[in-house]
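Fig. S4 source data, part A: sequence.
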Amino acid sequence: MSLRINIVTSGRFHVLDLARELAAIGHDVRFYSCIARTRAVRFGLPPACHRRSLLWLAPLLAAAANMPAAVRPLVEATFKRLLDRSAAASMEDCDAFIGMSGLCVESAQAARSRGAKVFLERGSRHIESQKDILEAIPGARVPAIPADDVERELAGYEIADAIVVPSRHTEESFVARGTARERLFRNPYGVDLDMFPASASPCNDPPVVIMAGTWSLQKGCDLLWEACRAAGSWRLRHVGAIGDARLPSSPLFEHEEPVPQWELGRELAKADVLALASRQDGFGMVLSQALACGLPVVCTDRTGGEDLREMLDDPEWVSVVPHDDGAALGRAIEQSIARSRVRPAIRSLPGRERLSWTAYGRRYDAELARRCSR
């Protein structure tokens, strides 16, 4: 069944990959965003899917990123409302509307009023759960999430026919706050298998554990560094931006500035194990990227690790530990390092095709058919 599908977003996120896959299946996809057509096409979106109507907002989005922290929330809130209103006014009729949570309220309501099924993409836990977790981190800013963002998130939840989440722990955070499980669709994010190919086993002495992403307390960088310091038998390599925590000064630690996504595979290939100690992370796409490269991963129960274990032929490639448990994290890393030492010369994950964006798109296609046929 071919559907007319409108996708509304500010940036690329995972929904550009979704748009590409749904178009490949045969749906009539219209992608509304602030992304220029040339950039969207670079990531595989068919040119005919791209809509220009929201491009005029791109300068405001760029300006917000460079404004003082005190005024940034106001500018970002204005941007969201303008984009949402513009999308509502300009989009074509559709059978299914897919929009980003916190952004799409008026546009989602407009699509629903014209008969479309509304799918709201929420990449993190329920906004109230996320807010509670972030504010519990020592030294956190309160409120951790602006009131306007919370209000828009909650409004979107009410409109949606389906709230799409990437992991079991995000799903359970909605159920705990009264959302009917039938209104939730859990679909773990995919990975570009060509961009993250199987890699050769490195010859690191001592072994190298890599963390990719912002060096921040939210991502548990303090727990990961403490596990490294306590073990003393492996090195920690960080690739990414520096957030709200200081970088360690130690021979056991190495920092690399952020790299483009298409270069991250080479960085992952240099390590023995990937670790993600997040206190709050909707999924952690770097987990599937590392697995695609052949690295075993260690992560907390507030990532998509449990979902990835269910997808693999050999779940031992993924070790999941309780969040905020540094001792358990350290033990799991030591065990994963030991397992990584007995991998073949070329590290190739059995069943890695299940992690692909193609598989992700097929799961989404089946859910669209199920809900839009009602």
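Fig. S4 source data, part B ends here. The two ends are 13 Å apart (CA to CA).
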